[in-house]
């Protein structure tokens, strides 16, 4: 979050109450104990079935009715449009303009956090889906028939969303590191370009199809929504067992790349000013030596390191999957790679919480006080009498932030281990073989946990 250096620094800077290596040992022990507890007491799959309970028919009809959908869509379109307006017409100061905090904190962080609890909250408010459906309804009203869409290529799957996720993080983290800080005007113009792209894809493939497969925000937020307790099926809302909906998520090609990209981009953002700082500085020097300008050198080097982080995270997962292939009775490597991808979703969420929890708490104070009263940041409006308010950085202590970070990493990896053990029992009905296969996933979880704690300790030190 290079556009909020002051808030980010205060959100992460702390004196560690206990050496990070001790937490790493403790977290590893927790994972090992959890592993053997699962092996001993969990011998039948528990998440493969929906285990859902439908809402009352009347309540489902009310919440999924056309007026409710129109209202939610209109709210999403209005807020998104207002953010673009604030970005284009307001101040270029990133910490005083409503647009950046709304897009990159309230939405970009808020939807994953809350969708993981309650289900996919973004879908009803998705502004591009609302516009695409409205245009489609208008076409049907005029032409008397549905628009003819191209068949979405099955092999393309969620790859557009995975690549789009890397692009969004590049804009947020790397573009602003090159001397031309990500100001609200740039973000608003990028939002306009993305809107044109999203609507064009919906015109080609249909609004629902593109939102399910290619639209970055729908797919990304929907991934975390699979962990939540609420969902819909066959036109009816339901309450489901937590995490159970995640088991079918990765059947679409490109899903593994998306969740790996989420872990990698969060890792890179945390490491770029900590663990990777010296290496990045050296890379920038090399780029300048071959004749690139300062801005180009910084952006090129940062891009290379982000892609290397993605490759490294992917390699760790691939090694774990490749190791499982050695267990007798294992399915194909491709099936294992797809079948265990959903087990990384809690880890992706844990990395988000660990790296951005405090930033979210601090910046939401700004969002709902002075940014809401003076959204353009011009100093001439005070809509709700809170334009002079500030951020209370004492609402969270340094120790509290650290313990939340460590707790999030441990809980996320234990949940990932649990989902992996459950899936292993599907592929290896003999629990002893299932347990043998999970030694590899235990190694993956321990590696991700120690890596996450290392990044936090370096950036917080």
How would you describe this protein?
With 461 residues, the protein is an all-alpha fold. The protein has one domain (5-460). Helix content is 67%, strand content 3%. It is built from 19 helices and three strands. It has helices at residues 5-12, 20-41, 57-63, 66-89, 98-107, 110-118, 127-143, 159-174, 184-205, 207-213, 216-225, 255-271, 277-289, 294-324, 333-339, 345-367, 370-373, 398-427, 431-460; strands spanning 52-54, 230-233, 236-240. The protein has a three-stranded antiparallel beta sheet, covered by helices on one side. The protein is globular and about 65 Å long. The model is unreliable at 9-14 (pLDDT under 50).
């Amino acid at each position: 979050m290079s556009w909020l250096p002051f808030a980010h620094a205060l959100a992460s800077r702390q004196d560690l109450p206990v050496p990070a290596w001790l937490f790493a040992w403790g977290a590893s022990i927790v994972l090992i104990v959890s592993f053997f507890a699962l092996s001993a007491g969990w011998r039948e799959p528990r998440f493969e079935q929906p285990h859902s309970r439908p809402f009352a028919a009347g309540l489902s009809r009310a919440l999924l009715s056309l007026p409710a959908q129109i209202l939610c869509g209109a709210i999403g379109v209005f807020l998104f449009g207002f953010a673009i307006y604030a970005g284009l017409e307001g101040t270029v100061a990133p910490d005083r303009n409503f647009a950046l905090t709304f897009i990159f904190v309230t939405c970009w962080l808020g939807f994953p956090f809350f969708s993981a609890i309650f289900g996919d909250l973004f879908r009803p408010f998705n502004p591009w889906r609302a516009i695409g459906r409205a245009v489609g309804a208008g076409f049907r009203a005029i032409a008397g028939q549905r628009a003819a869409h191209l068949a979405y290529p099955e092999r393309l799957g969620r790859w557009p969303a995975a690549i789009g996720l890397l692009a969004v993080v590049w804009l947020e983290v790397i573009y602003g590191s090159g001397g031309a800080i990500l100001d609200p005007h740039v973000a608003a113009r990028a939002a306009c370009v993305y809107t044109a792209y999203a609507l064009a894809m919906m015109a080609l493939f249909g609004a629902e199809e593109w939102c399910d497969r290619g639209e970055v925000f729908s797919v990304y937020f929907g991934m975390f929504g699979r962990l939540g307790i609420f969902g819909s099926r066959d036109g009816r809302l339901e309450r489901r067992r937590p995490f159970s909906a995640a088991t079918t998520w990765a059947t679409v090609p490109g899903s593994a790349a998306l969740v790996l990209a989420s872990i990698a981009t969060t890792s890179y953002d945390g490491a770029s000013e900590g663990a990777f700082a010296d290496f990045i500085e050296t890379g920038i020097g090399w780029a300048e030596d071959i004749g690139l300008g300062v801005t180009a050198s910084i952006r090129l080097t940062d891009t290379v390191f982000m892609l290397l982080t993605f490759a490294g995270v992917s390699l760790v997962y691939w090694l774990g999957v490749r190791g499982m292939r050695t267990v007798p009775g294992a399915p194909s490597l491709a099936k294992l790679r797809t079948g265990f991808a959903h087990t990384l979703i809690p880890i992706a969420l844990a990395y988000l919480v660990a790296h951005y929890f405090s930033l979210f708490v601090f910046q939401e104070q700004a969002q709902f006080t002075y940014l809401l009263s003076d959204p353009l940041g011009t100093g001439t409006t005070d809509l709700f009498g809170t334009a002079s308010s500030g951020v209370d950085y004492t609402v969270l202590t340094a120790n509290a932030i650290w313990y939340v970070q460590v707790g999030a990493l441990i809980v996320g990896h234990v949940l990932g281990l649990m989902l992996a053990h459950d899936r292993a029992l599907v592929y290896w009905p003999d629990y002893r073989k299932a347990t043998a296969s999970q030694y590899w996933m235990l190694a993956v979880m321990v590696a991700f946990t120690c890596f996450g704690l290392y990044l936090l300790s370096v950036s917080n030190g």
